[in-house]
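Appendix B, record 7
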Amino acid sequence: MLGSQLNAAFGNEFLVLSILGDLDAAVSAAGTTQGTATALTASTSIVTTVGAGSGVILPTLSKKDRLHVANHGANTLAVYPPTGGKLSNNTANRPALIAVGKCADFVCIDTVNFSVLLGA
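Structure tokens (predicted):
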């Protein structure tokens, strides 16, 4: 991928680019806390395995980067911000909850804080 090639050529300065445009179509949620949630590594993540109370955690990104997360699992999915971050000016470290069969878009405001658009 272009992002991976840029990262290889220019180092960590372009680390964020390595996940842009990527698709992970088979993510398994894990843990029941921010510290034990599955780390997302693609700009579009389809979570296919969601145990009760399990979740995923967003990566630290650059301003204006976007992520899309879809819940194709059997339970509500918790999506945590990076440690210390907020989702739509909510309490720090509190997850967004995505219902079964729904999705959400996350727009990075400043590396760890995101604006969230949850599917109805």
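Remarks on this record: The first helix runs from residue 2 to 10. The first strand starts at residue 23 and ends at 28.
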